[in-house]
Specification:
With 210 residues, this protein is an all-beta fold. The strands form 2 sheets. The chain has a 10-stranded mixed beta sheet with strand order 1-12-11-8-7-6-5-4-3-2, with no helix packed on it. It has a two-stranded antiparallel sheet with strand order 9-10. It contains 1 helix and 12 strands, in the order E-H-E-E-E-E-E-E-E-E-E-E-E. The chain is 2% helix and 59% strand.
């Protein structure tokens, strides 16, 4: 069995007295492997899931469908579930999926559609780029519902034969569910080191721009 080690370093960038925006579930959840690694999966080339690095789909050589579910603290109001799929082709990889979080009084539903492709710049190594569009829909009983579309960018770059760099930026277009309250824009950078056939070491730095 392949062994994986993960480490996540989280931070927040604040400017002046700007108010902090709420951090929702869509930045972290999305797959069993990412959860087991403490979400240090930005550079994980085998990652799959609705909220993974959009560029990871370009590394897939076959179709894959994944499911994930969890219920934090045994509370139905904190249930989360997702389904995601990747379809590689000669012209690139298409990915899509959906996820839901919450209960009867509060619920978030997200739908994602992405495209990723590997590009070569005159060398034997490829840089993999990905773009995902995600529709956010939130409903709160007594207050109604609202939605917005966010754009997410991803990159995977092999630095050495055993070392990969990953980057993932979310909501780069600054979408808002409520006027004046944009969804969190996050940036993560990660490294994946393949120490052998049975061991990978992953490190992530994750920042939320508040």
């Amino acid at each position: 069995m392949r062994h994986l080690l993960g480490l996540l370093v989280a931070g927040c960038l604040m400017a002046g007295s700007s108010p902090a925006h709420g951090q929702s579930t869509y930045d972290l959840f999305g797959g069993a492997r990412a959860s087991a690694l403490g979400y240090a999966s930005t550079a994980l080339t085998t990652a799959s899931g609705v909220h993974g690095n959009p560029a990871a789909a370009a590394r897939r050589s076959h179709r894959v469908v994944s499911f994930f579910a969890r219920e934090a603290f045994g509370l139905s109001a904190l249930r989360y579930g997702s389904v995601a799929g990747t379809w590689p082709a000669a012209w690139g990889s298409v990915s899509g999926g959906a996820s839901t979080f919450g209960g009867d009084g509060y619920r978030e539903v997200h739908y994602s559609l992405g495209y990723a492709r590997g590009l070569s710049f005159g060398t034997s190594r490829h840089v993999h780029l990905g773009l995902t569009g995600r529709y956010y829909h939130t409903r709160i009983d007594g207050y109604g519902s609202t939605g917005a579309v966010g754009l997410h960018l991803g990159l995977l770059l092999p630095l050495l034969s055993s070392l990969d760099l990953g980057a993932h930026a979310t909501n780069v277009n600054g979408p808002s569910l409520v006027e004046g309250e944009p969804l969190p824009q996050t940036l993560s950078m990660g490294l994946q080191y393949r120490a052998g056939d049975a061991l990978r070491v992953l490190v992530d730095v994750f920042n939320t721009i508040c």
